[in-house]
Amino acid sequence: MKYIKTVFILIMIMIILSISLVWYVKGGSSTLIPLMTSDVDSIKIENDMSVAESNIERGGEIVTTLNIQIGSEIFTATLYNNASTQSLLAQMPLTLNMSDVNRNEKYAIVPVPLPTATERVKNINAGDIMLYGSDGLVLFYKTFSTTYSYTRLGYIEDISRLTNALSDGNTEVTLSIIE
Q1: How far apart are CA 42 and CA 33, in angstroms?
Q2: Which three-class secondary structure state does DSSP give residue 29?
Q3: DSSP β-ladder status, 123-124 and 119-120
Q4: Rounded to whole angstroms, how far apart are CA atoms 100 and 173?
Q5: Alpha-carbon gap, residue 77 to 156, rounded angstroms
Q6: Which residues contact 54 (CB under 8 A, 6 or more apart)?
Q7: Whole-number Å distance between alpha carbons of 124 and 102
Q8: What are the phi and psi torsion angles at 112 (to 5°)?
């Protein structure tokens, strides 16, 4: 009987390690098993997002360009094609009062939460546009490493004037679709 218990425990450990390895190889997420039904949709979107991002890195589809007005400066941004950006586009035009966070990003809550496809991005580039949680729109104006997870939304194309436009305190930002 003791031998059977030991074999059973070893088999369970091997199964758990196999599942963990497959999960890690496929890109992982902050949770291995969804805790709520709504998390299942997020995980599906996250898996779809990794495919979409691979296509983007290989010159794949990019969906929409935006005007981002910061004071008198206007920037052009490119959005990735994913469920989060589609939901964000439905809220346009959008004017937000963005708060400065850590002297490297501007942050504001969007009126309607967006679907998520979070990932540990590791490196953030100046000009990146990301979603923190389901409702935190973030414009990054400095490049740095991070351990946080975000949903990638897009990027600002020409960042040469971005730091000057965003670096002073709270800022009103207007996002609108270029038609």
Answers
A1: 12
A2: coil
A3: unpaired
A4: 12
A5: 4
A6: 60
A7: 13
A8: -125, 125
**32's tokens:** 């291995």
Give the predicted TM-score (pTM) of the model: 0.66
Q: What is the pLDDT of residues 12-21, one digit of tens each?
A: 666 665 565 4
Residue holding tokens 């199964």? 15
Q: What is the dihedral of CA 28, 110, 177, 152, to 10 degrees?
A: -10
Nearest of 98, 109, 110 to residue 169 by alpha carbon: 98
At residue 11 the predicted structure's pLDDT band, cuts being 50, 70 and 90, is confident
Tokens of 118: 């979070």
DSSP per position, 110-179:
-SS------EE--EE-TTEEEEETTTEEEEE-S-EE---EEEEEEEES--TTHHHHHSSSSEEEEEEE--
